Amino acid sequence: MAAASRGFVPGPLDPLTLRTYDLFFAVIRLFLENGVTHVAEAAFQHPNWARGLEPLRPLAELRILRCQVPDALSQARAESRRHEQPARAAHDDAGHFSVARSFDPIRLSAPTLDVDTTSGYNPDLEAIAAFVRLDSGAVTGPTT
Length: 144
Fold this sequence. Notes:
5 helices
């Protein structure tokens, strides 16, 4: 969408980004309504996840993975992606990290697994895959 919008400059709550949230969840709904298992990945703050996922709950058994790293590493990775990936121009990474702020992670009532991605995956990918495949009544292990 950003590439098709001449002169687009990303910023906090710019109109294109706001439209993108709705489109993101509309695509998830389309997959779910057609019986397609789906993994949705984004670094949204909790209010954006809640607004988008709550209406979809009747269509899916949610599993939440919260990937976490120290703030400084998150910023360094974003800066690296900004320079290495031209498509990142659609995101206001520079503006986002220019102001000290806290991240409000997703916290819905659903099986949730916290994953440390500082160096690889902890727990490992096998454990993550096992968590995702669990029946909702049989969740065990390092979840919240």
